[in-house]
Amino acid sequence: MIVKNHLDELLKTVNESKQIDIRFKDWNRVIKWEVEGKNYFWVTNKNGIANSNPKKADIVLKCNANTVKRLASKDLPFFIAIWATGDVKFEGSFSDAFRMGYIFLNDNRKRKVVFLSHCFLNTNTRFPGGCAYEGATTPLIKLLLESGVGIIQMPCPEYQCLGLEKYKYGELVHDELRSCFRELALDVVEQIEDYLEFGFEIKGIIGMNPSPSCGVEITKGKGTMLGTDRDTSEKKDSGLFIEELKKLLDERNIQKVKVFGVRRILPGEDGIEERLNLINEKIK
Q1: Contact call for residues 262 and 124 (beta carbons, < 8 A)
Q2: Cβ(188)–Cβ(155) below 8 Å
Q3: CA-CA distance, 266 to 256, in Å (whole number)?
Q4: Is the four-CA dihedral 80, 85, 86, 88 of positive or negative sign?
Q5: Residue 262: CB atoms within 10 Å
Q6: Contact 12, 50 (CB under 8 A)
């Protein structure tokens, strides 16, 4: 009965997880434990794991009683026991074994992320002299790191579609450039869908005002980039990449993700504190 008690402790650990509905979605398996000549059966369903009568097993786990005890007491992480130390031998697919390892892992992540315009993290894609920071917009990145959110760097559409020095600026015809930007935006939206499906909270998509590509509330030079006009004044509009991103979010019916911008910092400019306070309020 001691082994059975320890296995029940493991079951309790799994079934108390906040990610049950995600981790066990469409995953129905029979698991057999072979422990020192005795067999114990589990079945998985959308509600987690339950004890079961003997059935044909999809996964077989073999170990000794002391290993079960160590697993139950969390002295030995299940993932390590399967994939590193070999204390638990398994028969079945690698995919199922990997998935089993995941369901026992402690999760210290806040499971909150932001999607951030590329050049906030890498100013080297900006135009020469167009940024006050050598490598990254340090105050903004520091704020995000200290808030505990994960930072997902979006692609730089101008680099991807126009080149590092943007030599194709104004040369690609309107539809070609928009199509290129839309393709990059689609990759971002598909990542957003993945994070939402697995229960993550997306605190926002942060663009850079007044970029012709990544501006959110303000943009400038979008017409010159598209080759349609020579107006470089600031306008209340979104840049081309953010425009395509918003369209795709609407098409995919993703309504609960906020899209907002923070104004870039140019050499000699003040006002960084006000901009950081705005971001801090939005990602709380």
Answers
A1: no
A2: yes
A3: 32
A4: negative
A5: 22
A6: no
Q: Encoding tokens for residue 254? A: 């993703």
205 and 115 Cβ atoms separated by less than 8 Å: yes
127: left (phi over 0), alpha (psi -120 to 50) or beta: beta
Order of strands, sheet of 259-263, starting from the edge strand that comes earlier in the sequence: 150-153, 112-116, 201-209, 259-263
Q: Which two tokens stand for residue 144?
A: 């995000």
The pTM is what? 0.85
Q: Which long-range contacts (CB under 8 A, 24 or more apart) does 22-25 make?
A: 22/197, 22/198, 22/199, 23/99, 23/102, 23/103, 24/48, 24/49, 24/103
Q: Could you give the CA distance from residue 184 to residue 181 in angstroms, rounded to a whole number?
A: 5
Tokens (6 digits) for 196: 């939402």
Between CA 191 and CA 185 the distance in angstroms is 10
What would the mean pLDDT of 220-227 be, rounded to a whole number?
88
By C-alpha distance, which of 193, 111, 194, 123 is closest to 153? 123
Q: Where are the domains of the chain?
A: 2-103, 112-283
Contacts of 277 (CB under 8 A, 6+ apart): none
Average pLDDT over residues 22-35: 92
Give CA–CA dist 115/106, Å, rounded. 25
* Tens digits of residue pLDDT in 109-135: 899 999 999 999 999 998 877 778 889
Locate tokens 């400038």: which residue?
A: 220
List the structure tokens of 78: 């299940």
Is 17:103 a contact under the CB 8 Å cutoff? yes
132-147 pLDDT, tens digit per residue, is: 888 999 999 999 999 9
Q: What is the dotted CATH code of the domain comprising 2-103?
A: 3.30.1050.10
What does residue 207 show for φ and ψ, rounded to 5 degrees?
Answer: -100, 175
Q: Give residue for tokens 């600026």.
A: 169
How many other CB atoms are there within 10 angstroms of residue 133's CB atom? 17
